[in-house]
Amino acid sequence: MNTFAKICLLALLLNANAFGQGTILWDESVNGPFSQFSSTPTSLSPFQFGINSVLGSVEIEPTGNNWLVHEDFFTVQVPVGFQINAVYLTIDGPQVGLWIGNPTFSTELAFVQNPTSGELLPQWGIGSIPFGTYGLDIANHDAQAFTTVASYRLDFFVQAVPEPSPLALALTGLAICVGFRFRRNSWKKAC
Questions:
Q1: Beta partners for 137?
Q2: Residue 60: left (phi > 0), alpha (psi -120 to 50), or beta?
Q3: In whole angstroms, what is the distance from residue 139 CA to residue 47 CA?
Q4: How confident is the model at residue 176 (pLDDT cuts 50, 70, 90)?
Q5: Cα(38)–Cα(30) distance, rounded to whole angstroms?
Q6: Residues 152 and 109 in one domain
Q7: Among 154, 106, 170, 161, which Cα is nearest to 131's?
Q8: Does 85 share its domain with 125?
Q9: Which pairs count as long-range contacts for 169-177, CB under 8 Å and 24+ apart, including other chains?
Q10: In total, how many domains does the chain have?
């Protein structure tokens, strides 16, 4: 590998962000059920760099001519200097609604009904989630003549917000590398 390629590779590696180890913030089978009330949501510890997972289940049960929906209400915190770049959902039931908004559950940031397993941010119609505190509400709306349960897993991918100076430095370095390579090729053709 020539020196030029080594310098470019080193510049890219020094500015790359890698995910840390995964953290399970809450697992209902271990930590107990989430709050079923928006007035007293379960407060999760702040997100850490890397993958932060939440595991739970929501159910709906028939009660006469109506259904009793057991929703999960919890709040999450994205620390200053970080953002959520992706949220992966794994779910095993239909007709589930996922809501995200402010921690008092009065202002909606995004909502999706009947999400599919996979990347959730595009289904919510948002690109990333900046620092702040957010409320999440997950509800099963699969009303049947029997109790239905939908189990879910949310994996939040949290990264540091790129600082302008390292990003600018990386782009400048890349531009110099490309320009130097272009000039070198032009000089060889001229001779």
A1: 73, 99
A2: beta
A3: 23
A4: confident
A5: 22
A6: yes
A7: 161
A8: yes
A9: 169/15, 170/11, 170/12, 170/15, 173/8, 173/11, 174/8, 174/11, 174/12, 177/4, 177/7, 177/8, 177/11
A10: 2
The string of pLDDT tens digits covering residues 30-82 is 999 999 999 999 999 999 999 999 999 999 999 999 999 999 999 999 999 99
Distance CA 65, CA 184 (A): 79
Give the mean pLDDT of 140-150: 96
Angle between helical axes of 164-190 and 3-14 (0-180°, round to 10)? 170
Residue 33 and residue 117 share a domain = yes
User: Residue with structure tokens 């590696």?
Assistant: 13
- Assess whether 150 and 190 both reside in one domain: no
Whether residue 51 contacts residue 157, with contact meaning beta carbons closer than 8 Å, is answered with yes
Tell me the C-alpha distance between 8 and 176, whole Å: 10
- Domain of 153 in residue numbering reads as 20-161
Looking at the structure, tell me whether residues 67 and 10 fall in a common domain.
Answer: no
58 and 113 assigned to the same domain: yes
3-state DSSP helix/strand/coil percent for the chain, to nearest 5? 25, 40, 35
What's the CATH code of the domain at 125? 2.60.120.380
pLDDT score at 190: 58
pTM for this prediction: 0.75
Query: Looking at the structure, do residues 112 and 143 belong to the same domain, yes or no?
Result: yes
Quote the CA–CA distance of 161 and 165 in Å, as a whole number: 12
Same domain for 47 and 67, yes or no, is yes
